[in-house]
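To assess whether ligand presence alters the predicted conformation, the chain was also submitted together with S-adenosylmethionine. Input:
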Amino acid sequence: MPEDHFGEHVAARYDDSSTDMFEPASVDPVVDFLADLAGHGAALELGIGTGRIALPLAQRGIRVHGIDLSAAMVARLRAKPGAEQIGVTIGDFATTTVDGRFSVAYLVFNTINNLTTQDEQVACFQNVAAHLEPGGCFVIEVGVPALQRLPPGETVRAFTLTPTHLGFDEYDVVSQGLISHHYSVVDGKLKVFSVPFRYVWPAELDLMARLAGMTLRERWSGWKREPFTSDSTKHVSVWEKPASRSRG
Ligand SMILES: C[S@@+](CC[C@H](N)C(=O)[O-])C[C@H]1O[C@@H](n2cnc3c(N)ncnc32)[C@H](O)[C@@H]1O
């Protein structure tokens, strides 16, 4: 089982530290996009966390099941109204299997990067494909690796500098590794923690999808279907599992 980087200390502050991500302006376009793909089927969220997307999606009448490693994050979800409609399995979303077939599976907020090896990311696509019904879709929201901003020979870039939070990304361009180091002042005390990620290119994700028998259907730079261009800093991509062929 991979290491859980969303233990009690992160879970306790998760919703408050990502407030803009919980605003209707951030959540509603995601839910519209996913509800449309789910249709009359069910949705599987990988890394369901505290239910930022799963709860409003379930409120739209979509059956939602989630997988997450962190019991602490899921305990926050469980304490919220409407959580009783959502099933959650504790486990690694690269390998954990759940009952049922889904018309859409989704992995948002850069969470594919929490799988820190290429093998784990490939396994995740294969696991998703095994859970999708024919014609079902896998949706990922993730940043485009910001390597154009890393001067040759340098390995560290600041991603936030505020009076209460300093954050630095440390890159390993050989392994596509990235460690985010956080130095935060919480209740007057310095808290330090670091989380490892693996950054991944859009074309590499397309190949992972192909290995799992899926093909790219759409790629946008945002949930409102904004065009994806060479300037885009993130993408929302949809891969499709082939619909089963009828026997003629
Ligand atoms: C950035 S949070 C996103 C939570 C939620 N999807 C959201 O949009 O607010 C990432 C979540 O993925 C979970 N996670 C990370 N790696 C995981 C893995 N390998 N298997 C299952 N859950 C994982 C973490 O525990 C955490 O709850």
